[in-house]
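TL;DR need structure tokens for one chain.
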Amino acid sequence: MHAIAISGSPRKNGNTDTLLTRCLEGLGKQGATTEFVSLRDKTIKGCRGCGICGKTKDQTCHQKDDDFHPIFDAMVKADIIVVGSPVYFGSATPELMALLDRAGYVSRANGFLFSRKLGGPFAVARRAGHNFTYAQLLMWFMINDFVVPGSTYWNVGLAREPGKINEDAEALGTADRFAENLAWLGGRLLG
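>> reply
TL;DR here they are.
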């Protein structure tokens, strides 16, 4: 079982990275191999809606940038995909949404490449907007036919300054239980 976590945070070692890393550590303890990807310093353009991916059926987005395809290929190979974003003006970061929009279109145009993979989102807010951002990201998982387990609460945290997420005991516990549930479900569905 292989898990990838993708952070949409522009901050190195920020609160989003911390929650995602904690989730990966929990999955690792359950025997999964793990991979962390940060979109910080990556160039991924937004989807143009050109539809070429649906005409060529070659699992390729024909837009030119250097960073989309290596991450997309890692997503296709993974059994578990977890994403996270800080809340910026009430929504996920544009970098993460550019990746997810393009990945979703290419996946769906090529026979639903993410179908029945496991995964789910995390959202971290200073004060508010985390529920909307969590829902925004969760909708991406749902329309791409993922299996998304629950946890003891929604996968959200409250923090602003780097490291403050470590003071949100409920968020940390939620991440731990989410990782346990992903591993449990993966053990049953993936063998």
